[in-house]
Amino acid sequence: MTEATSSGNEEITNEDRLLELAKSRPEGISNENIKQCIPNLPLEELAVIINKCLKNGSLELFKTKDKLLYKYKDSSKKSVVRGADNEEKVVFKIIEEAGNKGIWIRDIRFKSNLNMTQLNKVLKSLETKKIIKAVKSVSASKKKVYMLYDLEADSSVTGGAWYQDQDFESEFVDVLSQQCYRYLKQKSEEAENMGGGPLLARNRSYATANDVHKFISELGISKISLSVDDIESILYTVVLDNNAERIVATNGSYLYRAVNKFMSTPGLVKTTCGICPIANRCADTGSINPKICNYFTEWLE
Fold first, then answer.
1. Cα separation of 26 and 72, whole Å?
2. pLDDT digits over 54-73, tens only?
């Protein structure tokens, strides 16, 4: 059975429809998913298509606790398995399972049971064919992890937007923090100028991470694309610096508002007497008095 396209010149086969469905759901598709999305596909034809795809490597079969899942496997991965020797297949499979977080060479060696000479040879061959790549991890300057060539490394490996060539971009983070606080401050001032009482002004001064993200994006101060989560992490540093407060909205998201910094601690409080736990019992006479206090004497010296 086939279904004609709108152009009338090409036909989409049920096999194509099944593979497109599998591509759209990288976590895997079940028989129930196939029945829902392709209801007119007879079970006999479905069985033939699945067996064909499993045989040619277009689909992979995975078993969970209660069902079977089919996952799409792209042509580049199939060609690797077909053209590789047994050692390359083993190493490729180990690296593939590691995903975009990669895997350290020591762990590959442990799982593959290959000696270092063999393993280095296999890794070099796979890298030359642009099947895998080595990525430096920010967690250790001399540590490299291996992952499939077409994958984008996870932020836990690269450090995300705040790292460039393994170096933390502290100046970039400082600029973003200043601009985030600037936006919150402006919103707070605008809310006060609108009037309506202190409670209403307070409620109006709160901003979402999406609001701040839009402001930062429009400023154009970042050469890389920042996500809302990136801005959320910057806003949290503003909160930790006591320049803003964060509350939870009714929908579970966070709201941010600029606040004035706490007053600096008076000098007298920093003295020994200011932090003494029994200062209220200190007097001119008695066993607790400034004249015989060792802590006070040491502080004066």
1. 7
2. 777 778 777 665 677 888 87
pLDDT digits (tens, 9 = 90+) for 109-147: 998 888 999 899 999 988 888 888 888 876 666 678 898
Buried b (16+ CB within 10 A) or exposed e, 283-301: eeeeeeeeeebeebeeeee
Q: How far, in Å, CA of 219 to CA of 233, rounded?
A: 18
For 193, the 3-state DSSP assignment is helix
Q: Which of 44, 55, 46 is nearest to 14 (CA)?
A: 46
Q: Which two tokens stand for residue 282?
A: 């200190």
For 256-281, the DSSP string reads EEE-PPPPPPPGGGGSTGGG-TTGGG
Write down the pTM of the prediction: 0.45
State the burial class of residue 209 (Cβ atoms within 10 Å of its Cβ: 0-12, 13-18, 19+).
Answer: buried
Does 2 score more than 50 pLDDT?
no
Helices and strands (H and E) in the chain: how many = 13, 12
